[in-house]
Amino acid sequence: MRYSSAALAAAFAATNVLGHGVVTELFGLGGGGGAGAGKASAGVATPKGTNETAVLATTGMGAAQGLPTSSDDGSIKVVFHQVNQDGAGPLTADIDATSGGTEASAFQKAEISQNVPGLGIAGLSGAQTMDFPVEVKMPAGMTCQGQVAGASNVCIARLRNAAVTGPFGGSVAFTQSPAAKKRAIEYNLCKRMLSRRFAAAAAQEDEDDE
């Protein structure tokens, strides 16, 4: 199956699972631990079929326990379960902070500081049935504003590989810690102030030249 950027189900299954590589867990500072998706040698072998059904087992937990929350620096940690050889990394990550996963144009590229190993070609590696930790950081200045199934301030993170028959991966829903949101707002304010200062300085130079 291929990854689709459709919105998460109303029951708040925190993961949209697809393919030969699957995001199976999301760890947050607050709220519920979500089922979902660097240092690439930290894989853990798992019995075949152990994690491929993790989403079904956790469907609806977000509604009861709350969404996972980012760390104060805006990062989230997930577990990516590689099912077979073309479900490997490296992964790419994008985050939608506004549309709840419904608009492809809303996804912005995000940094992956800890990734899944792979040959770098078509999502291939020699590993299979392994769990790998992945860490994704929100872009600077991003604030979670999405609305999903009655919940506010939702971000959707999408992770996928470059498999020819894919891409394979998944998506997770999360929200921001208060400190992370404060940092993002302050970043945007500083950026706006600097832009105004540069514009004012440029205007002054033009006047001086005249």
TrEMBL record:
Which Pfam family, an example, fits this chain?
Answer: Egh16-like
Q: Where is the signal peptide?
A: 1-19
- Is Secreted found in the keyword set? no
Record-linked InterPro entries = Egh16-like
Key word Signal present:
yes
Q: Which domain of life is it from?
A: Eukaryota
* Coiled-coil residue spans: none
Annotated keywords: Signal
Q: What is this protein called?
A: MAS3 protein
Question: Which organism was this protein described from?
Answer: Gaeumannomyces tritici (strain R3-111a-1)
